[in-house]
Write a structure and sequence with these properties.
Elements (H helix, E strand, L loop, with lengths): L9 E3 L3 H13 L5 H8 L5 E6 L2 H7 L11 H11 L6 E3 L14 H9 L2 E4 L4 E9 L2 E8 L12 H22 L8 H10 L3 E3 L6 H20 L10 H35 L4
Parallel strand pairs: 2-6
Antiparallel strand pairs: 1-7, 3-4, 4-5, 5-6
Helix pairs in contact: 1-2, 1-9, 6-8, 6-9, 7-8, 8-9
Length: about 280
């Protein structure tokens, strides 16, 4: 059995929506304070502001409409408390061709797809998308979700972790056979720099160990993917080789997203059912 950490861990976080999903789940369960949520979001931007996507959502949530002075994450948390979501918060990481986890058609689905991330409170009829609007400013926009869509796909964390490892092995083999996985001077330093540049934040006390391990592995794989996508100087690939490389990397990119969603979902499940009060 994995040990639950006795103290919160300072580790890289994949995206602002992952931070918000985990910390608001802990807060709604009584395992964190509102200030803890605000502190956890700090590494993502110097300032965070909040608004509703439209006038109807503004009336429901008591958040400002577009064009009005923006609000803060504190008021967003208050709106979530009033909405009283019964089901778990859901991290979505959609990309064109893979929109698993999104609800039915609507503005939230469109904007989450454009941003590549979002947080869904399906039973409360709300979805939240963060997006940078200025240097050092991240805006959280709250959208109505009238169609929750199909039940979310469940993938056990053990399965997601295993598939990520398998895809790493398979993709490495394919890239080697294509001749596009050659050693490039400084590539290890590129990967290390990419990892060290990721925002680091505290996770809630009680964050289970396996999700942390899977999130860390996903970060490492993503950094390797970025390095593998760079052409060597003076060695541009042919169009066919570049297309083959892209196809070889696509399954592992999917596996990274699946692993991250599964890790966050497991963390939410644990924190929501075992509040530290």
């Amino acid at each position: 059995m994995l040990r639950t950490p006795d103290v919160a861990s300072l580790t890289p976080v994949p995206c602002p929506s992952a931070t918000f999903t985990v910390w608001t789940s802990a807060w709604l369960a009584g395992a964190a304070a509102p200030d803890d949520v605000l502190d956890a979001l700090g590494p993502w931007a110097d300032a965070h502001d909040v608004q509703a996507a439209d006038a109807d959502t503004a009336r429901v949530t008591a958040l400002p409409s577009p064009g009005e002075p923006v609000s803060s994450v504190t008021f967003l948390l208050a709106a979530l408390r009033r909405a009283a979501p019964r089901g778990p918060a859901r991290l979505v990481l959609p990309v064109p061709g893979d929109v698993r986890g999104l609800p039915g058609p609507g503005h939230f689905s469109q904007q989450a797809l454009a941003a590549g991330e979002g947080v869904l409170f399906a039973d409360a009829g709300l979805g939240i998308v963060p997006a940078p609007i200025a240097d050092g400013v991240l805006r959280w926009t709250v959208y109505p979700v009238t169609d929750p869509g199909p039940p979310p796909e469940f993938i056990a964390l053990n399965q997601a972790e295993r598939e990520l490892r398998d895809q790493v092995r398979q993709s490495a083999s394919v890239l080697t056979s294509l001749g596009v996985a050659r050693h490039r001077p400084g590539v290890r330093e590129e990967i290390a720099a990419a990892l060290s540049a990721r925002p680091k934040s505290l996770w809630p006390v009680g964050m289970p160990g396996q999700p942390l391990r899977v999130l860390q592995h996903a970060d490492e794989v993503e950094a390797i993917l970025a390095a593998a996508s760079v052409d060597e100087p003076g060695g541009a690939l042919s169009a066919s080789a570049a297309a083959a490389r892209r196809e070889a990397l696509r399954p592992i990119e999917t596996a990274v997203r699946v692993a991250r969603r599964a890790a966050v979902a497991e963390a939410v499940r644990v924190l929501a059912t075992s509040p530290l009060v």
